[in-house]
Structure formats: C-alpha cells, structure tokens
Amino acid sequence: MCQQEEVCSKSVINSCTDCIRSGPYCAWCQQLNFTKAGEQESVRCDTQAQLMERGCIKEEIISPANNVTIIKEDPLSVSFDNQEPVQMSPQKINLKLRPGLPTTFRISFRRVEGYPVDLYYLMDLSNSMKDDLENVKELGRDLFAALKKITEHAQIGFGAFVDKTVLPYTNTNKEKLQRPCDESDQYCQAAFGYRHVLSMTAKENEFKKKVADQFISGNLDSPEGSLDAMMQAAVCGNKIGWRNSSTRLIVLTTDAGFHMAGDGKLAGILEPNDQQCHMENNLYTKSNEMDYPSVGQLATELEKNNIQPIFAVTKNVEDVYKVNFTFLSTHLSFHSSNNVVLLKVIFNFMFFQELSKMIPKSEVGVLSSDSKNVVQLIETAYNSLSSKVTVTHDNLPDNVRVVYTPICKYAGPAGDKNGVCDNVHVAQTISFDVTVTADSCMEDTSFTIRPLGIKDTLTVTLSTKCECQCKDPNDKMHQLCTNRGSIVCGICSCMESFIGQNCECSIGNKDEQSLRASCQRNNGTECEGRGDCVCGRCQCHSTNQGGRYRGDFCECDDEHCENYQNKLCGGNGKCDCGTCKCNAGYEGSACQCKASREGCLTKGNTVCNGRGRCICNRCECKEGYQRPQCLICLGCPDPCQTKLDCIECLGFGSGPFGKICDTNCRNITYDMVDNFAISGKECHQKDSEGCWITFKLNQLVGEDNYEVEILKQRDCPEPPSVIPIIAGSIAGVAVIGIVLLMLIKMLIYMKDLKEFRKFENEKKKSKWAEADNPLFQNATTTVANPTFTGE
C-alpha cells in the first residue's frame, strides 16, 4: 500500500525516446501492428501494465531499468597494521539510471582498531593564559598516556597564537611590540599572530622541551586570532606533519572569543583570506595583510583535510563557541565607536549559528581556569567524535538527489545531506543505504561519498539511460512500410519523399511542410490534435467512447455537447459537431425544455414584443431589453434624440433627412395633430432651425418601429433686431474709449504734479553761500599821482 503508484504522464510522444524520457514508469511497445487504423503512435507509450492489457507482448515492451555495477570492493580492515586500512566499502561503483527512477545500494563502515591519531595542540598565549601555559608544560606525559590508550600510533604537535600585530588589536609601539606583557612579567615574547612550534612527533621529551620554551605574549582587545591559526594549521599539512592515514585532531585552548571575516577592516585590512598556506620560518607571514577567515571558509578547509576540531575553552566563553552571546557583547564593547562595524557585528550575530554546528565533526568542552582538566577533556571529546559516523557527499551534480538511510542501533533520521550513526564502537560494522535519483539526462559524471574525518571515499560514476535499445528487423525496406521504409522501434521510418503511418503517401515535388499546412485550420494545430495528416488530408482518430472525429480538420465530434440531467442533449436530441439538434417538441441548448410560447406572449399576442426569442417558455431578450416580455430597454439610446431628424423631416420637411426622408424613416408612422391622442413618451427637442418640436413616441412590435404624433405648431423664437445691437455696440466702444483716454490723462497729470512738488521741496532745502567771484573785475579804475605828497 505504501509503494508508489506507477503512472505514465506522457505529453507529446513521437518516438520511443520521447516516451522513455517522459517519465520513469513509461514503457514503449515495439510490437508490429500494435496500433489500429487511425490511432496515433503515442498509444504505444504507457505503463507496462496498461500496454499488456492492450495486447502488447511483454517481450516487446521497452522499459530501461537501473543498473548498479560495483567496480572496486576491498574488504573492511579489522585493525591497523602499518598499511593503508580500509574502513569503508565499496570504493568504486557505476550507476546507469533512468531519469526519475531511484536506485539504492549499500555501503559498509567499520572503525579500525588502533587507527593512528595526529593531535595538534593549538594554544592561546595571550597574557590571560599565563597560568594555563605553566600547567600545559607539565601535561606532556598525561597527554601521551591518554593517546596510548587509544592507539599505539599517536603523534602530537604544538602551535600558538595571539592576534594580528596591528592596531587596534595590538599596541604598535616599538617597545610594546617587543614586550607586550605587563612590566611585572619576567618572561615575555614579542607579539605575533600565529607560530608553528612543533611538527607532529611521537617523542614525549621533544614535546615537553618545545612547550617549556614558550612564554606568554599580549594584545589589546579581548577576541583573539584563533581562526587565523586554525586555517594555517589546516592548509599547511606538510609543515604540520599530518599523516595520510590518521585521525586528525586540532585542540584549540583559549579563554577568549575570536575575530572573523570583516573584522580586519578596523585595521584597514581589506584583502579577504585566500585559504592558502603562508608560513615561513614557522610564522604566518600574511597575518597583517589578509583578513580573518570566515567560519564557513574554515569549516570547508577542515572538512576538506579531514580535520576534527576540539574547542577546549573556559566557562566564560563557552557560549562564544555554542550560542555566541558572549561573542556579541565582547565585540560591542570594543567596537562601539564605529557604527558601521557595530551594524556588521549585529548582522553577523543574527545569522551566526552555533560554531560547533557550523563546523562538521567538532566538539566543545569547558576548560578549567588553569587548564588542568585538558587531558580528560580531549579524551572525552575524542570518544564522542570517533563514535559518531557521519556519511556525506562532495561535488554532487545538478539534477541528482541522494538520500542516506542509516542501518545501525543508534541511527539518525534519513536525510538528503548526510546519514548519521552514533555510539559506534571499535570493530563494529554499520551500514548505510544510499538512494540516488537522476532527474534529467546526463553524460558520465561522478561524485564522492565519504565519512567525515576519515580518508576513505566511495567514487560514484553516474550516467543515464535516455535512448531506446530496440530489436529492429534487419530489412531496410519492410513490407509493413509498403517497402518504402524501415522499422524503428515498431514504427515506420520512411524514405525521402514518402510519409504516412505506413509510408503510403508520396509527396512528389511538394515538401512535407506544405502538405501539413493544408491539415491546419487557421494555422492552428494539425488536424486539431485529433487525427493524422496523411497526404495533405486529415485522417481522424477514434474518440474515447468509440465514435470518430469528423470534418476536414477533425474539428467535429458527436460526443461533446451540453448535458442535461447527466444525459447528452437531455436525451431529447442528437449531438451534431458540438451542438444539440433537438427532437420535435423540444428546445434549449441541451434540448432540456418542451417547446411552448405561453409565457412569452404579450397582450397583443406577439412573442416577446418582437425583441427576443422564446426559449424554454421564457423570453431571451436582445441586448438592453428586460424580461419578462422585452418591453423596456434600459441600456438603449433615448429615442427622442435618435428619432429627431426623422420627426423634423416627416413633419416639417426640413433637417438633415429633408430629401431622403422616405428611405431613412420608413419604420415610423406619424400624424400631425393639435393635441395628443396616443400614450407614449412625450419629447420636446430643438430642431436644425432652432425651433422647438413637441411630439409623442409609442414603440410598436419590433426593435425599431414607432408610432408618432407631432404637434403642428412649432415654437420658434423671434430673430434678434440687428440695428439696435450694432448701435449699442458702437456706443459701448465709444464710451469705453473715452473713459480710457480720461484715465490716461489723469495718470499723466498725477505724475507731473508729483514731479513738480518734488522740485519745490528740493528748492526749499538748497542753501546759497555768499562769496566773491575771483574772476570778477570792477569797472572803476583808481589812479594815484606819484608826485603827490599830500600837502
């Protein structure tokens, strides 16, 4: 009952290939003479059950099935013996799928006993981790002892990080760069971003010595450059010393949050992280040139290199690596002065999920304030990681779907992203059913399936079956095709110049396109989709009820008329090309009524007043007229206006119809009267001569027939007197001219008066100074006698 029902949803089918591609359950019958005369070849396409029911032999049915071929299937290893172990099987598989039809295969996995472990201890050496560093220096023996419980093939490496050595992360004062710690600290190393201290080694003494040489450093802000350090540890595999066959672990110990992509803008670092190795002399050389990596970038590289991180963090920043509330408050307190960065931080927080969930195969553990419990934390995290087997895929092609169904005691739900089995013990074999579906045709392509954190992979090569492999007769000219063509998947493939179901039509000099055009009505579908165009004429198909389509274009059938009481044409007529032809005594679109006119007769014994048809004993009125008897027309134009020209013409011999009155007004009978004697609509209209005509209209039987009475006397107003009008106009113009001249004269006088008064005022204000003109000479000359002495 839970199995999917097999349905063939076919559309346009012209060949076996079209059929196979139309749906996963469509099959093609290649049996000769399977189709009947007039049937389309598309009837060969249906589900296998339907074809067999129609008489197709099972051996003649083409329905490609999925094929699964295992190319490489090495057996699973039990324990590690210094050779490449096999933990997943098979390793290579080929799939040939039919589009839309799913196929399922099984993969097996077994944890190898004693599988090597590479552990890289990555430690925060900022000033707040001073006491932790001292304890880690004494933990070498315990770390190795814990790993020996897991495997005899264990190695440990060591790295340290602080932050970028630029403002605002680190004090760039020359002295502070060399000694960023407090003055009370006797041992302090220069500021740095990330330093690789020790490559992978199995020697306990070497680990103790390298860690003992380390000292704390310092920076300014609380978040550290831990993502920078993890990225370099992941991509610089040769320098770290990761082995090809090992469980790779990065243990990050810190008591602070982390910077991520975008934070570098605070220091003017705009170049994004390129996810490449930039390590020289064991130092990350691009620390001050490239931005921090994003969590997504880091997760990609960790997954790509099969590295599983363990976040050993103190309680105060546990939420940074889980729910990230501390991450937000830390960033806000430091960057509150920069509004742009503030908005960015809030945006990142809103969409930032739990870090451990964003990075596959990772664990978070709470570190004590002095890191004394780090060994126990690592041991617990490793057991959690190694006992959880997650199978996923890489490079999945478009239009391909994969579903994983775990088969184990503690199985997770089936999913299209991955399959999960938990609490898997060493040497325990588990399985996953992998269901693959290709949704479209495609050439050879491939993708990989692998367990997270493990090197083993399964390569799946995929191709599709979209072509029919038919067993055709060898005859180039087959008798079924009138020796003018060959058989291809049960149907005729005709020679050039021949067409038709059996190649029976010779098109001669005509091209096939012109012949097919003659089978199309108004450039529509060929034979209305109800027949085949043979030699330029439509051969109509049979209908579903056993009848046949007919007409030049197969446009007619006698089965699709209106039904009444679930009977075609109410059982009272015959269907003729989509229209009911009623028997005598019946009418209606579905012959549903007995013929009767009683409900349509008027007082004058007319049917619907001549303005409609009586159908099913009811008036079907013409547009605008109202039931029950089509007497009133609410949507018609006012006849007082539409008939005015005829009234003026008939009654007074004037107007636009003066000379053609008999032709245009033949449906109107009229009388000239002194008083009205008929009932009807009274009209009062103005004619072409400006006179008012009064008349009455009474509509007779029919749509445009009227009886009219016209009053003999028109109301024509007297014409106006021309002489008084002209005289009055002249007098008015003269008066207006005189008034304008007086106004202009008054304005000029007022202006002159104003200027004169201004002159008088200025004259009164002037003061004349009394002085002699130096050019003036008196006309009187006085001469003195030089000899006169006055005596």
Automatic annotation (TrEMBL):
This is Integrin beta. It is found in: Cell membrane. It comes from Amphiprion percula. It is a single-pass type I membrane protein. Residues 15-468 form the Integrin beta subunit VWA domain. PROSITE patterns: I_EGF_1, I_EGF_2. PANTHER family: INTEGRIN BETA SUBUNIT (PTHR10082), INTEGRIN BETA-2 (PTHR10082:SF15). Disulfide bonds join C8-C468, C16-C26, C19-C56, C29-C45, C181-C188, C236-C277, C408-C421, C441-C683, C466-C470, C489-C527, C494-C503, C505-C519, C533-C538, C535-C569, C540-C554, C556-C561, C575-C580, C577-C608, C582-C591, C593-C600, C614-C619, C616-C661, C621-C630, C633-C636, C640-C649, C646-C716, C665-C691. Residues 640-721 form the Integrin beta subunit tail domain. Keywords: Calcium, Cell adhesion, Cell membrane, Disulfide bond, EGF-like domain, Glycoprotein, Integrin, Magnesium, Membrane, Metal-binding, Repeat, Signal, Transmembrane, Transmembrane helix.
